[in-house]
Amino acid sequence: MDYANKLKDSLYWWLGRKKPFIINDEYKLELLFIDKINNSAKIRVTNLKTGLAIESSDVSSEVLNGQE
After folding, report:
1. If DSSP states are collapsed to H, E and C, what string results for the chain?
2. Model pTM above 0.85
3. Are residues 22 and 30 in contact, defined by beta-carbon separation less than 8 angstroms?
4. In angstroms, what CA-CA distances link 45 with 27, 37, 54, 65?
5. Which of 6, 11, 22, 50 is deepest in the core (most CB within 10 A)?
6. What is d(CA 33, CA 40) in angstroms, rounded to the nearest whole number?
7. What are the structural domain ranges in the chain?
8. Which residues of 9-45 are buried (b: 16+ CB within 10 A; e: fewer)?
9. Rg (Cα) of the chain, in Å, rounded?
10. 29 with 20: CB under 8 angstroms?
11. In terms of Cα–Cα distance, which of 33, 15, 11, 14 is closest to 24?
12. Do residues 17 and 31 lie in contact, with contact meaning Cβ atoms separated by under 8 Å?
């Protein structure tokens, strides 16, 4: 399903390893690993226009929490 230019406020998505989420044809969000012990997940966000990918382990927790 195409959500290009339709995401305004929020939406729920069941993210799976074979089911990435594309945000406005600009970013791709992928699930890489689920850590059931710590109840967390490793994700990758890729800028589709530049090809630059950032994995969740590459970003400090302050950035992920919006504190930086």
Report:
1. CCCCCCCCCCCCCCCECCECEEECCCEEEEEEEEECCCCEEEEEEEECCCCCEEEHHHCCHHHHCCCC
2. no
3. no
4. 7, 23, 5, 16
5. 22
6. 9
7. 27-64
8. eeeeeeeeeeebbeeeeeeeebbeeeeeeeeeeebbb
9. 13
10. yes
11. 11
12. yes
C-alpha–C-alpha distance, residues 30 and 48, integer Å: 12
Give the residue, 37 or 59, on which the prediction is more confident: 37
Residue 19, both tokens: 């089911």
Residue found under tokens 């990918």: 53
Q: How confident is the model at residue 30 (pLDDT cuts 50, 70, 90)?
A: very high
Handedness of CA 18, 53, 8, 63 (dihedral sign): positive
Convert the pLDDT of each residue in 4-25 to its tens digit: 666 667 777 888 889 898 888 8
